[in-house]
Amino acid sequence: MAALSAAAALAAPAAADAALLGAAPQKDCYRAGEQVTLAGSGYTPNQGVAIASDGQALGSDIADAAGNFGGSLRVGVPSGEKVKTYTATDQTNPANTAAVQLRISALTVNLRPKRGKPSRRFRIGARGFTTGKTLYAHVVRKGFRRNIRIGRLKGPCHKISARKRLFPVGIATGLYRVQFDSKRRYSKSTKVKVVRGFQVRRRIR
Reduced to 3 states, what is the DSSP secondary structure of residue 7? Predict the structure, then answer.
């Protein structure tokens, strides 16, 4: 966990044995893979601070001469969403510890049914698109491009469940790229996205 001198300003100075811990940016929900800064104060000057997530050690940092430290970490959950507790413990005085809770969501899109006509309506369940208020799907192949508004994202972790038709009736056969993101227009360079490949085949009667 690399020290960040500017991060120490996130936590106000505190007396010895009165540790404080904060996170920035402050958000209701963090997307898995997002970079978060933890900053603390009130630790033993020039000594180690142990960082843990739900009791599992992540690493350590060194408090400065004023007892402050700051560092960054990448948060994550394997699936769904979870409130995780991050702690910073004074390695010289283990009783001096502070904690902060962060709600974290995986970035996922689930589609049902798995089989059927390309023009069928899909049940779309998505979460973790914290970069916007609305979910879109962009269907792309060579000269074909279709932007579809899936619906408004809800809750702190920006979730949605909706039924939408992604492919029009009579769409040409081929491999299509379907990109889900919170942008109205398609861009391959959009950073926060979930991409799926769909092979449309001609039906044999």
Answer: helix
